[in-house]
Amino acid sequence: MARIATGTGDQGTTGLADGRRVPKDSARIGAYGAVDELNSALGVALVSLRGPAAELLGRVQRELFDLGADLALAKGGPRITREHVARLDAELDALEAALPPLQRFVLPGGSEAAARLHVARTVCRRAERALVRLAATEPLDAESLVYLNRLGDLLFLMARQANRDAGRDDVEVRFR
Q: How many CB atoms lie within 10 A of CB 122?
């Protein structure tokens, strides 16, 4: 792109990658905007992470960029596949095995890294809901939904691990 500010969206529409113009409040734009917001939230979380956790989230950021591209194209082969979901499943299994079982509900917080990961988790759930809304009206590759669902779970476990790495307890709450 030669120019960022083109003025073509001044009337409330935006262009898809295939050249079509759609309203900025369409379900498709909402979905890839939510995925972009999630990617930004992961960037904020990455500021507090090092080592394997940072490497994992860096990979996830690139995958989310691909998911956003799929949503912007509105056709073509999906870039998020069963293999991506399988990698998240393996990460989930490894983290869950390393953490003590949950005894209560966990509130967002503890360490700075955990708090940032919890924010990313909630943004991930919002992106997942945006894809569900899109899937109600337009075809959507099912693996995209599965991927975001698993990613939300992974971010929860990563937040718990971040607290553990920082020597902090999860912030637990019990229903009264």
A: 15
Domains of the chain, each with CATH number or no CATH: 22-169 (1.20.1200.10)
What is residue 21's DSSP assignment?
A: E
pLDDT tens-place string over residues 38-69: 999 999 999 999 999 999 999 999 999 999 98
Closest of 64, 91, 92 to residue 80, by C-alpha: 64
pTM to 2 decimal places: 0.91
Encoding tokens for residue 92?
């989930």
Cα 130 to Cα 140: distance, rounded to the nearest angstrom: 12
Contact status, residue 38 vs residue 127, Cβ threshold 8 Å: yes
Residue 53 near residue 162 (C-beta atoms within 8 A):
yes
